[in-house]
Structure formats: structure tokens, C-alpha cells
Design a protein that fits this description.
The complex is a heterotrimer of chains A (117), B (105) and C (476).
Chain A: H1 2-28, H2 57-71, H3 73-81, H4 83-110
Chain B: H1 7-27, H2 31-56, H3 62-92
Helix pairs in contact in B: 1-2, 2-3
Chain C: H1 9-27, H2 35-53, E1 59-61, E2 66-68, H3 70-89, H4 91-98, H5 102-120, H6 124-142, H7 149-180, H8 185-194, H9 199-215, H10 224-231, H11 234-259, H12 264-286, H13 292-312, H14 316-347, H15 358-361, H16 363-377, H17 383-393, H18 400-425, H19 439-457, H20 460-474
Helix pairs in contact in C: 1-2, 1-5, 2-3, 2-5, 3-5, 3-11, 3-14, 3-19, 3-20, 5-6, 5-11, 6-7, 6-11, 7-9, 7-10, 8-11, 9-12, 10-11, 10-13, 11-13, 11-14, 12-13, 12-18, 13-14, 13-17, 13-18, 14-16, 14-17, 14-19, 14-20, 16-18, 16-19, 17-19
Classes of the chains: A mainly alpha (117), B mainly alpha (105), C mainly alpha (476).
């Protein structure tokens, strides 16, 4: 039964964490009621044009690059934890791994994925 | 940490997630929604792998290692998928699978 | 722990070749990139030579994670030969339709590396990584003509089905892991041979059949393959049809005949039904097709059905038959698709009607197409006949209905193959100008034709090689 205490604690902390932010801001935020408050964006300017506009695909290219290189870090942590056991061979292997990633970056650079046109 | 949790809870959770993902992958019309559904299926697999590792082979990290590989490969696949979807969108201005009908039965 | 790198000679050299092709492409200015195709080609030839030299290598790495035996070597040689024939036969097609891209060649090398890993994989992790390396490379290749909507559509369809089937296979792996407590195929074999078949194991097995059914495009998991075959650049289609299918069968054999031998009673009927469905649907739907690539796609679904027949009995004879058939399937398919590529180069069409009078415009191409199609139909004395004979003779006792079905369906397949042949030989061409093909394509066509005829008349050498490889499969 004691195992369920952990689960319950997890659940409670999760709920408090989520609800706490909303509740605190509800309690302490200043209240001012006017019609600009009800607009989509509170910039003081009326919205112009359709809200379904096209973003530059450059954003997506950057996001893709980020996703790919970001996930590879997952291999670095287990490697770092057992670094002392792996010794010099482990270092060499990790450098080979990074080298392959750098090749990918080089390719993306050469293809112009990093330029903001 | 000894545990009295039953492994079948994890198996049921993972089976449910897998079924939800499979349903989504087969029924959704939007290419990105299908990709997300496939990710849900892979998450189900990861839950299974890690839970079974904990209960069956706690001294070896087979399941965890497998899960790490699944995560990275899935990221590569999603990256490729989004790249192709962007290229299609530039070409045709749609990501709806029903519109991908240049080739017929 | 001692790690014997010499067992990985072929994979490591393949990996270095892929990286070298890639780096060379990055360094060399784009005008002088013509040589990269030749560089990759010679590199592949060298690796093929190395693999043949290492034929007798035997060993197990990392407690069964990676197996090096003749069985794996056989499929490695098969994949390398396919890659070489595909690159050599379509140098001109690639230059004209895909542009001068070094990525094309390095991606082919990496796809081949993935296939080699699948052939040698001894546990679920290496098998999964091999499958994904191959699949991701193929997605890039299928969607390579990024200006062409059809190619992109084929790419996204292939990606979605590949992701789905990978997820299903992985779920099967996790269930088998839950049932047996191990992911090494040989240990799974020990566990299943001793224990009773648990529901978890059966569920995992069904998942594996479904997932790998996608990969070999067996009915009812075949829906993607005609679209992908039609939309992909033709050399890629050939590579996909041969290489990816053959190694998926290698994985199927390794998983089912070696790993799940203990529950053979549970999966043999499942595989038999898949085989029967693939033969029926593949052959019947091929009849009304008007596009040659779609016709070949449906015919390749039917071929997957024939190959599955060899799996049903889980016997050495069946394994040998699958290996023999997949090797001759290389030549028949690459030959047919090379003809499609050279004809497309000239007339910019894949419609069967546009093949009218091909014999007057390009006699060699028409002859190769004839021989390859007849071999796929299983007409003696061509190689396909011998292959089908080996496959179906394994199931004569016990599954006689499969043999009859295979015979009937082969006869039906003759009908649609001959329809193409009639158009090529009987009809008059719209434009009688001869199609000039280039010497590389000519040599490839002659190689495939000679191999198909030779293996039909004199199958013994390949048969013995396949036999010894099949025996090594069981020596564990």
C-alpha cells in the first residue's frame, strides 16, 4: 500500500503545481474592466487582416534542426555517467559520434538552412 | 526500492495508449495528426519497455537502452516527416491526406 | 569484454564509404561532382569483394546481439549486388532526372548498410536500428525529386506507413520481452522452446507478423506499395522492391524460424493465410493495371506471397528456397525496372500502352523485359521456375492447398505479363525512332538477362551456396 503514497503524492504535487499558478494569479492580479480587455491581443491596436497568415518556412527549418540535434544529447548523459569506466576508448567513440553530427551541421550550413532569407 | 505495484497496470496503460495511437493513425486525415498518433504509439512502447525492465530484469538496463534508441530514432523520423510535409505544403497548400491523390488505386 | 572488430569488417568499410561519399560531396565544387557516382560504385564493388572474401567468417558479438554467419553474408552479398546493379544501370537516369546530387549516392550506401545490419542482427535493438536506418534512407530516396508532387506524396505515404509498421513491430518486441525476459533472439528461442506459449508471446508474435507484413508488402498490409512504387524515382523503386523486401524476409526468418520456433504451431497457419492472400490479391489486381510500375508493384506483392510460402514449414529447405528465390528475384526485378528507367528517359511515360513496338525501338530492352517477366511468372527454363519449384516443394506435405493455389495464380500471372509482352512485340510503335540507352544500362541489362537464364538452366551452384548458408542458420 505504501507504494500508492508515492503515486498520490505525485498526483497532489502535480495538481498543486498546475492549479497553484492559476489560483495565485487570479487572487493577486489587478482588475480593470474595459472593452480593450476583451480583445484578442492587448496591444492597443485593432487587429488587421486575417489571423491565418503564413509564417516563414525558415522557422520550421530551425525547429527541425533543433529537434534533431537536441535529441542526440540523450546519448551524452549515460556516457558522462559512466565516463570513468569507459576510459580513453569511450572518449574516442564519443568524438566519432559528435563528428558525424558535425558533418550533418556542415551539410545543413552548406545547403543554406542556417541563413535567414 | 521494492515495489508492490502490479506490472499489469503498466501493461494496460501501455496497451490503451497503443490502441489510442493506432486508432488515431488509421482514422485521422491530417498528416501531422497521423505523425502525432504514431508518436503516441511509440510512447506506449517505451512505457512497456521501461516497466518490464523494472519488473523482469532490474539488474540489466535492456529496456531503458531500447527506449532511448526508440526516442532518438522517432525524433529523426518526425524531423524527416515534417520536412516532407513542408515541401508538400509549398507544392500544394494542403496537409490533408485525402488531398494526396495524384495517384489513383 | 573482448570485442572482435574484425567481424564487423564489411559494416565498418561500408560506413566509411558512406561518410567518404558524403564528405567528398561537401568538399568538391558542384560542377565536378560527376565522379561521385563512380566513386560510390567502385567503393561498393570493393566492399562486395571484401564480403565474398569473408564468406567463411563466423562469430557472435556482445552476447548474441550481432551474429556473423553465412546466412547473414548471403543477404549482405545480395544487397550489395542490388545496390551496384541499381546505381550502374541508372547513372544516366539519375543525372537527367534527379540532378547531380551526392546525397543520392551516400543515402544509397547508408540504406545498404542498414540492410546489412538487419541481416546480421541478433537482438531486437540491432534489428530495430537496422530497419530504421534502411527505412529512413529509403524515405529520403523516395521523396528525392522534391519538385515533383508525386515523389513527395510517395515519400509521405511511405513515411507514415513505415512509422506505423515500426511502432507495431516495436510493440511486438516489447510484448515478447515481457513474455521471455530477454531481447536476444537466440535466448528467446531457448525460452519459447521450453515454456508454454503464453498469451503475451502470442500477441507479440501477431504484432510482428503484422509489422513485418507491412515491410514485405504482404496483403492485407500492402496498400502503400503501389503508390510508393509509382511515385518514387525508378531506380529507387527497384532498390526498394528488391533490397528492402529481401532483408525484411531475412529478418522474418531470423525472428520466426530461429526465435519463435517453439510456437511454430501458432504462427504457421497465420503465415500461410498471408501468403495465400498476397498471391490472390497481388495477381488479380495486377490484371487491370495500365501503368507498368503499378503492374510491377502488384506483381511484387504476389512475389511476397510466394516467398512467404517458404516460411510456413520453418525447415532448412524452406529457408534455402527463400534465399534462392530472393537472389534470382534481384536480377528479374532490377532488369525490369532498368528497362522502365531507360524507356522513361526517352518517352517520359510509364504507361504500358506507350511500350508499343518496343522491340523495334530497343530490341535489347524488349528482350530483357520479356525474360524478366517470364521468369517472374515461373516459365521454365528460366530462373523463376526453379525458385518456385524449391518454394512450393517444401509445403507439398501438409499444405497441398497452397501448392494448388500457387499454381493457379502463377497461370493467371502469365496472362498479365504476356499482355505487356504482346504490346511490346506485336503493336506498331507510334514513333519508330530507336531508343538509345547508354553502355552502362546495356551492360546491366545483359548481366540481369544472362543471370536469369543461367540460374534457370544451371541452378546448382547458387542452390548449394544457399544450402550451406541455410545450414549455418541452424548451427547454434
Amino acid at each position: 500500500m505504501s507504494d500508492w503514497v508515492g503515486v498520490a503524492l505525485f498526483l497532489v504535487v502535480g495538481l498543486v503545481f498546475g492549479a497553484g499558478g492559476l489560483l495565485t494569479s487570479f487572487l493577486i492580479h489587478p482588475r480593470s474592466k474595459n472593452k480593450y480587455k476583451l480583445e484578442t491581443y492587448e496591444c492597443g491596436l485593432p487587429t488587421e487582416g486575417p489571423s491565418w497568415i503564413r509564417f516563414k518556412t525558415q522557422y520550421f527549418t530551425y525547429a527541425l534542426m533543433f529537434v534533431i540535434f537536441d535529441v542526440e544529447v540523450i546519448y551524452l548523459y549515460p556516457w558522462a555517467v559512466s565516463f570513468e569506466n569507459l576510459g580513453f576508448a569511450g572518449l574516442v567513440k564519443m568524438f566519432i559520434f559528435i563528428f558525424i553530427l558535425v558533418l550533418g551541421l556542415w551539410y545543413a550550413w552548406k545547403e543554406g538552412a542556417l541563413e535567414w532569407k | 526500492m521494492g515495489t508492490a505495484l502490479n506490472p499489469s497496470y503498466f501493461m494496460v496503460l501501455s496497451a490503451a495508449l497503443f490502441a489510442i495511437g493506432l486508432y488515431g493513425a488509421l482514422s485521422r486525415k491530417n498528416a501531422i495528426a497521423v505523425l502525432i498518433s504514431i508518436e503516441i504509439m511509440l510512447t506506449a512502447v517505451n512505457i512497456n519497455l521501461v516497466a518490464i525492465n523494472k519488473f523482469l530484469t532490474p539488474e540489466a538496463f535492456i529496456g531503458q537502452i531500447f527506449a532511448i534508441f526508440v526516442i532518438t530514432v522517432a525524433a529523426a523520423e518526425v524531423g524527416l516527416g515534417l520536412a516532407i510535409i513542408i515541401a508538400i505544403y509549398r507544392n500544394r497548400h494542403t496537409v490533408d491526406l485525402d488531398d494526396f491523390n495524384w495517384m489513383k488505386w | 569484454m573482448h570485442f572482435d572488430f574484425s567481424l564487423l569488417t564489411t559494416e565498418l568499410s561500408m560506413f566509411i564509404l558512406g561518410l567518404a561519399t558524403f564528405v567528398l560531396g561537401l568538399v568538391v565544387p558542384s560542377r565536378s561532382r560527376r565522379g561521385i557516382g563512380a566513386f560510390a560504385l567502385f567503393g561498393l564493388l570493393a566492399v562486395l569483394g571484401l564480403t565474398v572474401l569473408n564468406w567463411d567468417q563466423q562469430g557472435v558479438l556482445l552476447n548474441g546481439m550481432y551474429l556473423v554467419d553465412r546466412y547473414a553474408m548471403f543477404f549482405k552479398i545480395l544487397c550489395l549486388s542490388t545496390a551496384i546493379l541499381v546505381i550502374f544501370g541508372s547513372l544516366r537516369y539519375v543525372n537527367e532526372h534527379l540532378g547531380n546530387h551526392f546525397e543520392y549516392y551516400s543515402t544509397i550506401v547508408f540504406a545498404t548498410l542498414g540492410m546489412m545490419v538487419i541481416a546480421s542482427a541478433g537482438d531486437f535493438i540491432s534489428l530495430y536500428l537496422g530497419i530504421e536506418l534502411m527505412t529512413i534512407s529509403f524515405i529520403i530516396l523516395v521523396a528525392f525529386r522534391s519538385q515533383d508532387g508525386k515523389s513527395l506524396e510517395a515519400g509521405i505515404k511511405y513515411l507514415l506507413q513505415a512509422g506505423l509498421s515500426s511502432a507495431v513491430i516495436l510493440y511486438g518486441f516489447s510484448l515478447i520481452y515481457a513474455a521471455t525476459g530477454t531481447i536476444v533472439i537466440l535466448e528467446v528461442a531457448h525460452a519459447t522452446l521450453q515454456g508454454q506459449a503464453s498469451p503475451l508471446l502470442i500477441a507479440g508474435m501477431v504484432m510482428l507478423v503484422a509489422g513485418l507484413g507491412f515491410k514485405v508488402s504482404a496483403v492485407p498490409f500492402h496498400m502503400w506499395s503501389p503508390d510508393v512504387y509509382e511515385g518514387a524515382p525508378t531506380p529507387v523503386t527497384a532498390f526498394l522492391a528488391v533490397g528492402s523486401k529481401a532483408v525484411s524476409f531475412a529478418a522474418l526468418l531470423r525472428l520466426f524460424v530461429a526465435g519463435l520456433a517453439g510456437v511454430h504451431q501458432q504462427w504457421d497457419i497465420l503465415v500461410a493465410v498471408l501468403a495465400a492472400l498476397s498471391m490472390i490479391i497481388g495477381n488479380l489486381v495486377a490484371i487491370p493495371q495500365t501503368n507498368i510500375k503499378r503492374l510491377l508493384a502488384y506483381s511484387s506483392i504476389a512475389q511476397a506471397g510466394y516467398l512467404l510460402v517458404g516460411l510456413v514449414t520453418a525447415s532448412p529447405a524452406g529457408i534455402k528456397a527463400v534465399m534462392f528465390y530472393s537472389f534470382l528475384y534481384v536480377f528479374a526485378t532490377v532488369g525490369a525496372f532498368t528497362v522502365v528507367a531507360v524507356v522513361y528517359n526517352k518517352i517520359k511515360s510509364d504507361e504500358i500502352a506507350d511500350y508499343a513496338g518496343l522491340v523495334q525501338r530497343a530490341p535489347l530492352a524488349a528482350a530483357v523485359m520479356l525474360i524478366c517477366l517470364l521468369s517472374m511468372a515461373g516459365i521454365p527454363p528460366l530462373a523463376g521456375f526453379v525458385g518456385k519449384f524449391y518454394l512450393f516443394s517444401t509445403v507439398v506435405s501438409g499444405y497441398l492447398w497452397l501448392v494448388y493455389l500457387g499454381l493457379i495464380m502463377s497461370m493467371i500471372s502469365v496472362y498479365y505479363y504476356l499482355r505487356v509482352v504482346l504490346v511490346m512485340f506485336r503493336d506498331d510503335p507510334k514513333d519508330p525512332a530507336p531508343i538509345e540507352m547508354g553502355s552502362a544500362a546495356n551492360i546491366t541489362l545483359i548481366i540481369t538477362m544472362v543471370a536469369t537464364i543461367f540460374l534457370g538452366i544451371y541452378p546448382n551452384p547458387l542452390s548449394e551456396v544457399a544450402n550451406s548458408a541455410a545450414i549455418s542458420f541452424f548451427l547454434k
